Amino acid sequence: MAKVNGGVSAEFMAKGNCNGHGNGVVSTEFKANGKVSGELHANLHRKEKMGDGVVLEHGNNIFSSFSLLPFETENDSNGDACFSSEIPGWYADAPPLWPGEAHVYKVEKVLFQGKSEYHDLFIFESATAGKIVILDGYLQLSEKDEFVYQEMMTHLALCSIPNPKKVLLIGGGDGGILREASRHSSLEQIDICEIDKMVIDVYKQFFPDIAVGFEDPRVSVYIGDGVEFLKSVPQATYDAIILDAFHVMGPGAQEVADKHFLESVARALRPGGVLSSPAESMWHKNFILEDIIADCRKIFKGSVNYAWTTVPAYSSGVVGFMLCATEGAPVDFKNPINPIDGVPNHGVTKGPPKFYNSEVHTAAFCLPSFVKGRRSKN
């Protein structure tokens, strides 16, 4: 899943007499000055082999991935906030694109900490949202609401075109979008390019209900860089391309790099083919819809639309999607012509979608007045 909220976790705040516990919760008296004591490192640092070359690491590094926040604070003689002992662990997701805000989760148990050539991966069991995944400091998904993003990213695109045959997923090593694509019986070829095999392996271990998408026999997995993979794809190969490892379209986008990459996406799509990509939340203070649509229309000459939905785990509780079509057969994204409502075939999944249906599909394109009325300053 993409790092759609642009978030980076808050820094670990600790200094003092620290005693570690194997479940990732620290009982300690410490100060919020951003430094970890040598005693913490000595007591907590250890590694465990998890199989397939994956290393689980316990130590100050793992705790630097989340903040331990107190229920109550006291002030010491230096004016620093001192936290009393026996403080439960909390993870604070504090995205830089959303300054002054943080979403805080109580950490019941640390499940995994690993590092590959490409990513740092941290997984913990939360008190209210199930298992949560942090990828390179970004909240990637929570078990409680992951299906919303996965279903909408997939079906907004595939239900908007008739009889899609070939789909490409860039990123998405968790397997959730593959799981949703498997519901479409017309698909003959489901390709995924994921740069990091560790991500795939860890999701298969800890999230079998999400990674079940890899069990579809139509799926072909390519381990490598998505940008390079697209360069090797013959022109007009795919009916749909889903980007799950890409900068969100919006204020945080990297214009030049994104432009060249999106051109390669458009080239790989057949005429009337469609792109589904995450986009910034409409609640972002710098969100200007007409600017995003104008940028996409420079490359995609067919329909271009913004959709949105609610995902509580992400900043503002809202995530956007850009749906773009290449020039060719007209695509009406707002009215699904390839519905999956009531279809008995659920692919490799255990039941029908939990969130998506044709009514939700159409409603996702309805925009609040303040979004329609917000104009570019350019």
Task: List the main descriptive attributes of the protein structure presented here.
378 residues, alpha+beta, seven-stranded mixed β-sheet, globular, disordered N terminus
Describe this structure in words.
The protein has 378 residues and is an alpha+beta fold. It has eleven helices and 18 strands. The chain has helices spanning 38-44, 60-63, 146-158, 176-181, 197-206, 208-211, 226-232, 255-268, 289-297, 358-363, 369-373; strands at residues 16-20, 26-31, 46-49, 55-58, 74-75, 81-83, 90-93, 103-115, 120-126, 131-135, 138-142, 166-171, 189-194, 219-223, 238-244, 269-279, 304-310, 318-325. The strands form four sheets. It has a seven-stranded mixed β-sheet, sandwiched between helices. A five-stranded antiparallel β-sheet has the order 7-8-9-10-11, with helices on one face. The chain has a four-stranded antiparallel β-sheet with strand order 1-2-6-5, with helices on one face. Strand 15, helix 8 (255-268) and strand 16 form a beta-alpha-beta unit. The radius of gyration is 22 Å and the shape is globular.
What layout of secondary structure does this protein have?
Elements: E1 16-20, E2 26-31, H1 38-44, E3 46-49, E4 55-58, H2 60-63, E5 74-75, E6 81-83, E7 90-93, E8 103-115, E9 120-126, E10 131-135, E11 138-142, H3 146-158, E12 166-171, H4 176-181, E13 189-194, H5 197-206, H6 208-211, E14 219-223, H7 226-232, E15 238-244, H8 255-268, E16 269-279, H9 289-297, E17 304-310, E18 318-325, H10 358-363, H11 369-373
Parallel strand pairs: 12-13, 12-15, 13-14, 15-16
Antiparallel strand pairs: 1-2, 2-6, 3-4, 5-6, 7-8, 8-9, 9-10, 10-11, 16-18, 17-18
